[in-house]
Amino acid sequence: MALRCLGVFIRKEMTGEITRRISTSTTRANFLRESPNAHLNKTLLKRYTGLKYDQNKFVQCTYLWLDGTNEHLRLKDRVLKKIPERPEDCPNWQYDGSSTYQALGENSDITLVPRALYKDPFKAGENDVIVLCDTYKPDGSPTDTNYRAAMQAAYDKTKDLEPWFGIEQEYTFLDVDKRPLGWPANGFPGPQGPYYCGVGADKVIARDIVEAHALACIYAGVEFAGTNAEVMPAQWEYQIGPSLGMKAADDLWVSRYILWRIAEEFGVVVTFDPKPMEGNWNGAGGHTNFSTKPMREEGGIKCIEQAIEKLSKQHKKHIQAYDPRGGKDNERRLVGRLETSSIDKFSWGVADRSCSVRIPRGVASAKKGYLEDRRPSSNMDPYSVCNAILTTCLLD
Question: What's the catalysed reaction (predicted)?
């Protein structure tokens, strides 16, 4: 897939710096002055991250999980006395599910089961890790919003076909007043046109955060493919994958966490809302690219078209799986214009960004490759989306 290109050039001195942790900017713009996080003196933290301790004996682990909203993350830290090399080296842990919309108070212990490890770009230790987990009820069954377990089951049944996923994550920067970052307080910027893949202070907003995010993701072990400014000012996109099986969905959640953390330090809000501004402004999607080994082989276009035919017969099922509110968020975005298809009708075409499913021009020419499902919203749960695609295209 074309997503393999990184799209960011990493200078050696920048790479050297990131191998420790992302440095924090102390610049304060006027439009951030009301943000409590922007007021904190970030340089004070360096007094403590520089303290010496045995990093082979003490390892800080940030346990990360998806809460009951199906679109937000929670985390807490613990210290281990050994370096974990696999997720199984980290013990299961519990938390209060009644505070994360996942349990009632009288029986609220939810179990975290480690599933993937990433290097932590925010902690001081070379061996500190992010521990991505999924969640289980007291009886051992997955919580209601644990779609990772369902995707894992679907992947286990289809792994001989080597399914790949690549995800294009769009998002928007907001000021603390929830207006898009850099927009006039009592008006609007110029119409869409010059902002997409733009350059210049009059076209691009908060590139510092975007480039810090790219470096931190690469350092962490996320399969980060690239980034670009999007059509609406203050809107950006980055790409994950293509990756085999569970990795793209796992990577997407960790990349969102990293983005939220970096923006937190800058005093900026990140939203994955699929339609942050009403009117003639582009929404934000989570376009999902999918292929199998037969699709990537010579003549694979036939397998791609067969998968599209199956998707066309399950449109309602996919709309319900493609945003956290069963399609209600996408009702605001999939309006049949502004580079979207209609939520009520399935469509597909070659190089057509107004379709539900697109075959890129290069794929049509090569007669092999992948398909792009353009329906998922920017705030979608990638486990839910990828599970729906696997079950419809390969299992139903």
Answer: L-glutamate + NH4(+) + ATP = L-glutamine + ADP + phosphate + H(+)
